[in-house]
């Protein structure tokens, strides 16, 4: 038999298998140490030193003094299988419900279970946190826009643009100033010299119709009739939108018809409150915004002629940077010398233009252009008006 050597407390012990058999016979007569409540200690054993020569005495291995173990923690109690453990919480706390599923038991058989193990967190539900900020009720009043503007003006930390000048253009139909709401009277269109009309005020007039190109026809005719018609809502002149019910004489401004709750239809007809059907109608129009190109059809040549023939200088005609002041005139004896194949040179013509300065590269100045007569021929005069300098007058016999 082979001998086995154990090392314990710096002592070498030769343990023989034959001695083990002998010790098992004397096991009942060997005293043992008391067992610990938490962990079982191996019983005290007497070992015999033996070799091939002689039998040695049996010695007891030294035993270390056993330290007192700390008190054990109470065991954790789990609920039985197939039973849900509910954790009750306060109303303000998060409520979590945990369901414990039974563990699959191992089946002792020749065939192995090929089913995959269940996920650890399968079936768990999580609640999302939602943060709500509650402002206590009190006497706090948020500042208005005027107070904020005044406060920023005192600080001097912002740059505020200049206020937009007020639009004094007035609609000759409804007599309201400036452009209207998109879903209302809409933008102003030019009808004639210093005459303006709202798009929808003209479009919803009885006589006016629109071409495919977006031109409004008979606007001037509707204006002449409106000067004699009184609105049923505001009792002012200029009403052009009448009720389309036969023999109904009710007529309104477009804005007054909306206020009076008239019903508008998609075929550009309108019914007053007395004749409109009850409830909603499938052909009713409730949105009046016009985003397409719409303009008033007019005779531009006649309009320009009327501007030129007016002796009063109440209006200014401007094209880009060119400002027109006077057209001048030509006598019959001057016609031969005061024209070219492409232009006429009327005496008394006067216009001004804003153009780049001759002295500074990054400034503009005013050039006053006029035509005079000298020795029966035209004389072209340009007067340069620039701030900080004397007026410079340039003359020549040709416009170039």
TrEMBL record:
One GO biological process term: methylation
Cellular component GO terms, alphabetical: MLL3/4 complex
InterPro entries documented for this protein: EPHD, FYrich_N, Znf_RING/FYVE/PHD
Family annotation (PROSITE patterns): EPHD, FYRN
Residues making up the signal peptide according to the UniProt record: none
The protein's Enzyme Commission number: 2.1.1.364
Gene3D superfamilies listed in its UniProt record: 3.30.160.360, Zinc/RING finger domain, C3HC4 (zinc finger)
Protein name: [histone H3]-lysine(4) N-methyltransferase
PANTHER family: HISTONE-LYSINE N-METHYLTRANSFERASE 2C, HL01030P-RELATED
Reaction equations catalysed: L-lysyl(4)-[histone H3] + S-adenosyl-L-methionine = N(6)-methyl-L-lysyl(4)-[histone H3] + S-adenosyl-L-homocysteine + H(+)
Keywords: Chromatin regulator, Metal-binding, Methyltransferase, Nucleus, Repeat, S-adenosyl-L-methionine, Transcription, Transcription regulation, Transferase, Zinc, Zinc-finger
Enzyme superclass (EC): transferase
GO MF annotation list: histone H3K4 monomethyltransferase activity; transcription coactivator activity; zinc ion binding
Location of the protein in the cell: Nucleus
Domain PHD-type: 168-276
Annotated region described as Disordered, given as residue ranges: 24-43
Source taxon at top rank: Eukaryota
């Amino acid at each position: 038999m082979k001998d086995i050597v154990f090392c314990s407390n710096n002592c070498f012990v030769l343990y023989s298998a034959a001695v083990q058999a002998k010790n098992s016979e004397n096991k009942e007569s060997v005293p043992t140490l008391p067992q610990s409540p938490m962990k079982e200690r191996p019983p005290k054993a007497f070992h015999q030193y033996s070799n091939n020569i002689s039998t040695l005495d049996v010695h007891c291995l030294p035993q270390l003094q056993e330290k007192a173990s700390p008190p054990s923690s109470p065991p954790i109690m789990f609920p039985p299988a197939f039973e849900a453990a509910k954790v009750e919480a306060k109303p303000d706390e998060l409520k979590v419900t945990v369901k414990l599923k039974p563990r699959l038991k191992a089946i002792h058989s020749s065939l192995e279970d090929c089913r995959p193990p269940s996920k650890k967190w399968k079936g768990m539900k999580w609640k999302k946190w939602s943060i709500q900020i509650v402002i206590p009720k009190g006497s706090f009043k948020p500042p208005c826009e005027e107070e904020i503007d005044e406060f920023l003006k005192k600080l001097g930390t912002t740059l505020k643009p200049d206020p937009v000048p007020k639009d004094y253009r007035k609609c000759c139909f409804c007599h309201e100033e400036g452009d209207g709401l998109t879903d209302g009277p809409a933008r102003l269109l030019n009808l004639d010299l210093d005459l303006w009309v709202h798009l929808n005020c003209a479009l919803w007039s009885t006589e006016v119709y629109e071409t495919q190109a977006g031109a409004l026809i008979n606007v001037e005719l509707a204006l002449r009739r409106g000067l004699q018609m009184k609105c049923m809502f505001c009792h002012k002149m200029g009403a052009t939108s009448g009720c389309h019910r036969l023999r109904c004489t009710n007529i309104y401004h477009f804005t007054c018809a909306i206020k009076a709750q008239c019903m508008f239809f998609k075929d550009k007809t309108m019914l007053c409150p007395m004749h409109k059907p009850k409830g909603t109608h499938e052909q009713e129009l409730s949105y009046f915004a016009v985003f397409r190109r719409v303009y008033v059809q007019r005779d531009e040549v006649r309009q320009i002629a009327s501007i030129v023939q007016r002796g009063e200088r109440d209006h200014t005609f401007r094209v880009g940077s060119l400002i027109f002041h006077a057209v001048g005139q030509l006598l019959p004896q001057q016609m031969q010398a005061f024209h070219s194949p492409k232009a006429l040179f009327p005496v008394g013509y006067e216009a001004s233009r804003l153009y780049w300065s001759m002295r500074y590269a990054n400034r503009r100045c005013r050039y006053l252009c006029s035509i005079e007569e000298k020795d029966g021929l035209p004389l072209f005069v340009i007067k340069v008006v620039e701030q900080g300098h004397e007026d410079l007058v340039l003359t020549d016999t040709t416009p170039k």
